[in-house]
Write a structure and sequence with these properties.
Layout: H1 7-39, E1 44-51, E2 57-61, E3 67-68, H2 73-84, E4 91-93, H3 96-102, E5 114-116, H4 117-126, H5 130-138, H6 143-157, E6 176-177, H7 179-189, H8 193-200, E7 203-208, E8 211-216, E9 229-237, E10 241-250, E11 253-262, H9 267-290
Antiparallel strand pairs: 1-2, 1-11, 3-6, 4-5, 7-8, 9-10, 10-11
Helix pairs in contact: 2-7, 3-5, 4-5, 4-8
Length: 291
């Protein structure tokens, strides 16, 4: 004679079945995550790729880690200058105070050089010229202290909760942020036509003591016909590693790419190319399934 299940036994059996199904789904999701990581191996310690229009995350790796951001800082420097509406044609004399701000950083500019704010911004964004960024902060209404306050106020306005700024060049390791926050900064910076233009300009020239000084963009990808870049900024100090942020057009989408603390001189460019290749493969695979 078949024994009837006790009601408690039936409840236990149902829970056991539910638990087994949950484990199966969990393992499948974990496997999918592992496959995702294997599909795009990045050398940057922190990385984030998002859809610029929807905000959807495409790739994320330690995107909440708060780390030094080096010269990515200069995007905030440019935003603060433009928001204040200062005269960009005003001529600025580079001073010893600017040299003190950048300390042992190398520069081709010399104290006494006279440039417009517009030229200083171009050099800061395109060539990551530290003396230029320091001069922009020093000549801000209210001086450097007021400039740093404005930087942090703008960060708060953009909801950059992981970010803190202490100076305009990025040479201080105390300028910190996360990949998640920097995506917000890139999105905001892209709204400024002058930042878009100068950060993606291939080369430019200024005059110092009557002699021309030619500069090139620190991101070689802007000179590549294979890339459609709408905004770009590189950064490097030893505490931050190699950094790169861009807004790019890839696989029929506008994307924001943030790469932080990449080891090796060319590894951030390598990571950008690996992301591009991976996205193109995904795009082809998706197109194939829909056809």
């Amino acid at each position: 004679m078949q024994r009837k299940l006790h009601p408690l036994e039936g409840i236990v059996a149902v829970f056991a079945l539910f638990f087994a199904l949950a484990l199966t789904v969990g393992f499948a999701q974990a496997e999918g995550r592992v496959q995702h990581v294997k599909s795009v191996l990045l050398r940057s310690s922190s990385a984030l790729v998002i859809d610029a229009d929807t905000g959807d995350i495409v790739i994320s790796k330690n995107s909440e880690a708060v780390v030094p951001i080096a010269s990515i800082t200069k995007l905030m420097t440019a935003i603060v200058i433009l928001d204040r509406g200062v005269d960009l044609e005003q001529r600025v004399v580079l001073s010893r105070d600017d040299v003190k701000t950048v300390k042992r950083s190398r520069s081709r500019l010399r104290t006494g050089t006279v440039l417009t704010r517009d030229e200083l911004m171009m050099l800061a964004l395109m060539a990551s010229e530290n003396l230029a960024a320091a001069a922009l902060g020093r000549t801000y209404p209210g001086g450097m202290e007021a400039f740093v306050v404005a930087m942090n106020e703008k960060a708060a306005e953009l909801d950059m909760r992981d970010s803190r700024f202490v100076e305009p060049t990025g040479l201080s390791p105390h300028n910190v942020s996360s990949a998640r926050d920097l995506a917000k900064l890139v999105r905001a910076a892209h709204d400024y036509p002058l930042i878009r233009e100068y950060s993606t300009r291939e080369h430019g020239t200024v005059r110092s003591f009557g002699r021309p000084l030619a500069y090139r963009n620190t991101n070689g990808l802007v000179r590549s016909s294979y890339w459609e870049i709408g905004l770009s900024k590189t950064g490097y100090i030893s505490q931050a590693g190699r950094c790169l942020v861009m807004r790019v057009r890839l696989s029929s989408k506008d994307l924001i790419v943030v790469l932080l603390d990449s080891w090796g001189k060319q590894s951030r460019i390598g990571d950008a190319n690996r992301i591009r290749q991976w996205l193109e493969k995904q795009h082809v695979a998706t197109a194939g399934r829909s056809s």
